[in-house]
Fold this protein.
Amino acid sequence: MSDSAPRDPVSAATTEPRFVRVALVTVALTFLTLFLFVPLAAVFYEALRKGIGVYLAAIADPYALAAIRLTLLSVVFAVPLNMAFGVTAAWAIAKFEFRGKSVLITLIDLPFAVSPVIAGMIYVLLFGAQGWLGPWLGAHDIKIIFAVPGIVLATVFVTVPFIARELIPLMQAQGTDEEEAALVLGADGWLTFWRITLPNIRWGLLYGVVLCTARAMGEFGAVSVVSGHIRGLTNTLPLHVEILYNEYQFAAAFACASLLTFLALVMLAFKALIERRALRQRRSALAMETSS
Amino acid sequence: MTPRFRHPSVLPGFGLTLGFAVGYLSLIVLIPLTMAFLRALDLSWDQFWQAVAAPRVIASYRLTFGAAFLAAAFNTVFGLIVAWVLVRYRFPGQRLVDALVDLPFALPTAVAGITLATLYSSNGWIGQYLKPFGIKIAFTPLGVIVALVFISLPFVVRTVQPVLEDLEAEVEEAAASLGAGRWQIFRRVIFPAVRPALLTGFTLAFARAIGEYGSVIFIAGNLPMVSEITPLLIVGKLEQYDYGGAAAVSVVMLIISFILLLLINLLQRSSQARSSGEVAA
């Protein structure tokens, strides 16, 4: 193992003896192996254990395909909605001063502090058969709970903060100078946004979208509460995995799980790729802020 | 709404963007969340008390908050080591390891749940080696902790990592030139600098672990009084159409976690004050 310290010219005074370094790396890697790498390998092992035929059959199953469609549908709703929210919230918070701003920033984070189960529950209390609006919805034959709208709503709830959280500090660091210059030069608000602000925040925005997508795809607790688990109708892919697992169809459950895991890995790769660029964008914004 | 600017701004769109953002947040998050509190208030005091203080519910609070605390504490220790190793040392495959630390954020919790349950069951890859020692993890409270360790693993690493990266080498060099040993430097110089980040990471991990549902229910076995977490209890009440009871337990859970997070925040503030005091001294 080549474990020389990164700040190499510095003498032994600011790094640890070799055995300490080796020991710490070993402890860290053992911990990560037990809790991360082994589970990751196990998903694919269990999925392919009964052969590729069983694997493909599990994924081509009509119920699995319906679940994939529903999962994609909730992503297609949750990501653009929360993108619109993230951009508008960040614009108002980063470009203007107003009372209650810090309260608003705190409230945006609220969905992170609420158990997903509670997130699902509040919609049941609102729209469920015995909920506040239940009788009215029933009279008008609108179904939200145990139907697709509820699943979309629950997914939107748990992913509200992701994009806003990325954009607010980025846009705060970038300040308003460039936008003001554009306006002075005669651009209108929209043109300024498209030509100045959006290019400046594009990596941060993309980063938030990746995080939001990953969470929307995988949400379980909130969706589980509002779904009703109707196969082919209100089952998302994570819920489908649960049903298969509880029916002891382990190979099929892990086959669908491996699909989600693969998507998670794609998201991580994307994230690692964007992260460096987003970081550079934020650093350059901060550098400009301190120099001006 | 008449906004009051500290600095008058020439930028357009304040009313539009703030209006949309606040309206959206109210519709999706705030109003529905308020409903849970109102629903709990619908109950009489006796009903409320019966819902939130039944022995089975109390046992679930103890498990949920206890396991979340232990998992976050475990991750604080190992998260610091992982962050340290990733920032300070070089080893093969480091960038891959660094990227994979975020896996628990990206992996659906249900996938984590069935995988951990399989691995830690008595004939699973990991469980079979623990069985001779009489250690059972799957379907016991220990399983809850394992699942919570997995889902909250990245928080401490990701909060401590940037602080370690920004730590200036000069401070350590100065300490070394003044005759401090390596351990002394860590204890007196490095640790105080990362302590606030460590606490933040702990808080985030703890908060996330309290509410976790998907990964836990597969590995916990969900025995009432033993390995049943509070979120599962809420789901159970909803399935029996006991909306009031579910809302009451949720409100208690939200309040307890809010108080705990507030306490940790206070602790953090005093820790930060102490750190800056130490640096100044």
